[in-house]
Amino acid sequence: MMRSRTATWFECKIRYEKTMEDGLQKKVTEAYVVDALSFSEAEERIIEEMSSYISGEFTVTDIKKAPYGEIFFSDQEMADSWYKAKLQFITIDEKTEKEKRTSVNYLVQAGSFNGAVKNLEEVMGGTMIDYTISSVAETTLMDVFEHVAKSTKQEDKPEYEQQ
User: Fold this and answer.
1) Order of strands, edge to edge, in the sheet holding 2-6?
2) For 44-53, how does the pLDDT look when each residue is reduced to its tens digit (9 = 90+)?
3) Torsion angles phi and psi, residue 94, rounded to 5
């Protein structure tokens, strides 16, 4: 089952000392994606997210606006990779009757290249839009962190706000 999320996404790179499978420490740079409204919020979010995974120090080495606006998430356990997909939407200009192609980039979660294509077709199959998949490529992204709204339950509010 696929789920789609449109937001402003930022690719963030972090560098830290990682303990490898052989027990040795190695400096690595890993890429992640967060949704945020600005570069400063993206930096804040990636630091917050990574602090719970990395025990030592780490630095944010790069933040850039991601080249896609929509991400397709998979709930399959084996879907542990992220693929950048470029789709071309085909429309006909009513005045000139010429075919017009518009390219749009997406990020798709899947366990394999074929899985990414299948997931794309599952999402796009529900639309009436004519499209072609012009490219699908595996990325080096480790994970995507979505913004989760803070709980607004009654007991989470300070006492003076409770009715």
Assistant:
1) 2-6, 70-74, 99-110, 81-92, 130-138
2) 999 999 998 8
3) -65, -35
